[in-house]
């Protein structure tokens, strides 16, 4: 009963109306983030099922490269602006974020949209114009709750190097999962964790997080792959809606700066007590020293 009621968080977004595809726009939204490159979101007709978060300046210096985060929303919701503070803040540190769902989209969206985002960015990265600074050789896939389940599917995508699982874990095809996850979703068994060969980081919400047991089991069952797990004890919804995404935002930025930009200072968050000082508990890791090898490749 508790599990079933709690699972409803995974599908917290309703699927009533047909999807809306707003006209392209790139006006300033929200705070712009806390990083050095004030960011915004926009839409691009060539990627109509997504929202793109990117530094606002049309001309970045050539030495600023923008690695890629493909992001799936909580509830597998088709609303690309439902994590706006968190994703804008990430982009402001010099990333492009391809979030599933157009701004204010309704209904659900699934893993094929993650694959589409990766294909799209590979075609455009480095070409003259808005995506000139984008570096598609460095891609992470992540998501929250139901979106975390979509992120796991990118284990098979050779273009994706890192997985981030926020308030999520593999549920298996239980009756509860069948009844509570959106129809049309592929429900994967916990055993697929053994197929993961990419480094994975988990951010959970402590004992009040419905996903804590599944996420923790996944962490322990993943072997021979660099991994980190931590809990910020605020429950399943995290701090994504706080200014700049709150503590989950800080953690995500440190993760991406380290693994996608090779930033050693950011790595200290995970290796030298930074997360614990910020209030993360029940942290654990394995093999993180190997990530320096990953993250220094191809870095200028
Ligand atoms: C999309 O998410 C934003 C932020 O939570 C919210 O303000 C907006 O109402 C949502 N749009 C829809 C159509 O649900
Ligand atoms: C999304 O909906 C919210 C209200 O729920 C509105 O304030 C906002 O302007 C809308 N954004 C877009 C891009 O349509
Ligand atoms: C879950 O298992 C049922 C049988 O119990 C099967 O009919 C269904 O297709 C499975 N659903 C998914 C999403 O794999
Ligand atoms: C899928 C899988 O390997 N599951 C195992 C995860 O770890 C727990 C306990 O450590 C086992 O009970 C599961 O069988």
From TrEMBL:
Q: Which UniProt keywords apply?
A: Hydrolase, Signal
Signal sequence interval, chain numbering: 1-22
State what protein this is by name. Alpha/Beta hydrolase protein
Q: Name one GO molecular function term.
A: hydrolase activity
Which species does the entry assign this protein to? Aspergillus lucknowensis
Q: Cite the source lineage.
A: Eukaryota, Fungi, Dikarya, Ascomycota, Pezizomycotina
Organism domain of life = Eukaryota
């Amino acid at each position: 009963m508790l599990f079933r009621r709690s699972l409803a968080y995974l599908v917290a977004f309703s699927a009533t109306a047909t999807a809306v595809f707003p006209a392209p726009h790139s006006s300033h939204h929200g705070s712009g983030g806390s990083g050095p490159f004030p960011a915004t979101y926009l839409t691009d007709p060539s990627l109509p099922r997504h929202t793109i978060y990117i530094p606002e300046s049309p001309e970045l210096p050539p030495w600023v490269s923008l690695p890629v985060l493909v992001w799936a929303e909580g509830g597998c919701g088709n609303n690309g602006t439902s994590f706006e503070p968190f994703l804008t803040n990430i982009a402001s540190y010099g990333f492009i974020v391809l979030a599933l769902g157009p701004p204010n989209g309704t209904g659900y969206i699934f893993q094929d949209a993650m694959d589409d985002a990766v294909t799209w960015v590979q075609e455009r990265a480095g070409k003259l114009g808005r995506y000139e600074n984008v570096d598609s050789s460095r891609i992470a896939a992540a998501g929250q709750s139901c979106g975390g389940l979509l992120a796991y599917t990118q284990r098979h995508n050779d273009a994706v190097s890192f997985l981030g699982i926020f308030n999520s874990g593999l549920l298996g095809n239980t009756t509860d999962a069948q009844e509570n996850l959106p129809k049309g979703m592929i429900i994967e068994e916990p055993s697929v964790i053994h197929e993961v060969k990419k480094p994975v980081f988990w951010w959970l919400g402590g004992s009040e997080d419905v996903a804590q047991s599944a996420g923790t089991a996944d962490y322990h069952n993943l072997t021979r792959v660099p991994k980190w797990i931590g809990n910020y004890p605020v429950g399943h919804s995290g701090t994504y809606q706080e200014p700049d995404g709150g503590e989950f935002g800080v953690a995500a930025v440190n993760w991406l700066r380290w693994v996608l930009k090779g930033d050693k200072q950011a790595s200290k968050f995970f290796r030298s007590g930074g997360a614990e000082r910020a209030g993360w508990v029940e942290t654990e890791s394995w093999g993180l020293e190997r990530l320096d090898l990953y993250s220094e490749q191809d870095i200028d």
